[in-house]
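Standup, Tuesday
Yesterday: got the pipeline producing structure tokens again.
Today: sanity-check two examples.
Blockers: none.

Example 1:
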Amino acid sequence: MAYKEILYDVSDAIATCTLNRPDKLNAWTGTIEEELRDAMFKAEADDAVRVIILTGAGRGFCAGADMGSLSATADKPRTLEEDQERMKAAAPRREDIRADFSQKYSYFPSINKPIIGAINGACAGLGLVMACYCDMRFASDTAKFTTAFARRGLISEHGLSWTLQRIVGLANALDLTISARVFLADEALQVGLVNRVFAADSFMESVMAYATELATMVSPRSMGVIKQQIYNAQFETLEESTQVANEAMRGSFMCSDFKEGVAHFVEKRPPAFTGR
């Protein structure tokens, strides 16, 4: 697929997906939706990629849904049948993927590589939805956030009511969604929405440094299995989660990355993980 509204780059085992409508603060469109989905699956399938970064071009991460599409929806809302047709494209790609992680926007957890949300600027509405589906979020110290929906006469959509409370807690999720107020990077860090805040003038360098550490120092296989464990554990009892972990550990003992993990530690050298 040729991309028109995103940029896709792979360098040093890191795939960077950049929303590329800087004049619109990367407001979300159907084209972005299709292209980003394609790029994420491309990165997952590429053995040369170990980490994925999602960011925005220019001053914004994603300012939410494009107002033109919102106006069209207000003039002619889609029917339930039309929404169901649009969802068919999000059918599970593998039998081991939960239906929960196969919806229109909820597929990030199904991708077996870590996804870092690099929030370089405005992050609102659907932009915040996508940021919450990332595995971790880093923000520029100039970033601004808002759920936005309640101030547009809308509701918490596309699973945000599920993801946000698991990230920031119930009370904070209610505050941020009901008020739809604007809040800044320091508060986002305080409530746990973002993992770290970096200075704007060196933001992407700081994000890339973290991504490079994952790409070079951590087993790709381990990252993929651990990611699946963490997301699936939200639906499991402690007993079930422990049984899954025990089985996964037996599999790890048979893998070359386990042997390399021990060898590079004993030999005091950088690891050469293969993901196998």
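Example 2:
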Amino acid sequence: MNEILSNEEIDTLLQMFRSEGAIEAEPQAGAPVAMPVTAQTDRVVSPVDLLKPNRLGREQLRGIERYFESAGKLLSATISDKLRLDARCDCVAVEQLRFGSWLQQLPGPVSIYVLQMDPFRQPTLFTASTSLLYGAVDRILGGSGKVQKVPKDFTAAEHTVAEALVGPCLDRICDSLAEVVKLKWSMQSRFCNPSMAQILPSQDVVLSVYFQVTGDFLIGDLRLVIPFIALEPLLERFTRDSVSSLDPGALRDKVANTVRDVPLELAVELGGARIRLRQLLELQPGDVIPLTARLGAPAVVPVMGKPKFTAQVGRIGNRLGIQVADVMGE
């Protein structure tokens, strides 16, 4: 597949060709990194990795991170609910790299799921640590979830039970991206051998998302790999600020409906008094404390501790009540 260089890579190439003096060749894989050399013109020349992916800008990457950080919170609730224990899932890394590099960094043993996430045309990968999944399987089947020995591969029955956790996790990831794109996933295949995960050319740029799961006795990671070519048409949506782009007051009704049922504490102050601590300690049943308020004066009604209304105190049947007289200013 032909590689398309970014503007930064093209500028780097042009700068190299304009430079005078010899430039050392890039080191081969596994070879020691060459130190910067000084050309005859006293200009420092350093090796440049032209294969390093640079498709996503900083703002785009940060916008994508926000969505997957939200996904981590949803995954925490889902894993806790499915396994009936306190668990936390954090999005610890979102990075762009070559698919071949991602495969080399893939820890093992791991369970790998090949997914078709419509409307993406390219396949995506979802992986889970077998230690995490095996503990989840034991927990779902009624066990403690504390597993001493983890097998390198899963049986078909264990895969089926594990999907009771994997499926809802994928649903939550799709939910977190619903504002950007409506995703519908389907599982194409599953296996535990990383050598079978070569579903994309090694040089293709992918977005790697790394979630870390921790619990009382469970620990592991979840990883999602999305081809860059699938995300490229959506990059503007990830960086779009959906709140600041709205007209002033556009969210008034939505916010009002959200906070309408929030409980508030309301009180009535009939008056106030200042006494010494000695007098407070000497108070006995039947003692009278004179208040600063006059008889019949409006009472102050604080809401959540802050004065909000003035009101008249009255009686409603056998109970005391107030009638709001005025709204106090700020």
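Quick observation on example 2: The chain has a mean pLDDT of 83. The first strand starts at residue 37 and ends at 38.
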